[in-house]
Amino acid sequence: MAKAQVLTSGSISSNTEKLGEVTGAKRTITITQPGTKKPLEVELSDADTSLSGIASAINKANGNVTASVIKAKDGDYRLMLTSKSTGTDGQMSINVTGDDTLQAAIRL
């Protein structure tokens, strides 16, 4: 039975700490899946660069992915992305453009 792909970021000490460069520059998370016609592109403001902000922005985009923040233990939070599709159609590729600091921080 095919399962939905789940991706989890590396450990972040806070779910509300801003992780990106505070530049006012345009930054976009692009989630590509073989089973969708076009990638999900989520533009993030400076305020949206915390784990909670990223999860909220992805969920508001209403794509083929759900995002949540999990607390493994005190001081250990992670962004978790779950595909709504199963099998190869649900495989996810994640890329952050416009903010190398954010890309390195979430490491999906």
TrEMBL record:
Main location: other
Keyword field: Bacterial flagellum, Cell projection, Cilium, Flagellum
Compartment list: Bacterial flagellum
Pfam families: Flagellin_IN
GO cellular component, one term: bacterial-type flagellum filament cap
GO-annotated biological processes: bacterial-type flagellum-dependent cell motility
InterPro entries: Flagellin_hook_IN_motif, FliD
Protein name: Flagellar hook-associated 2 domain-containing protein
Organism of this sequence: Enterobacter cancerogenus
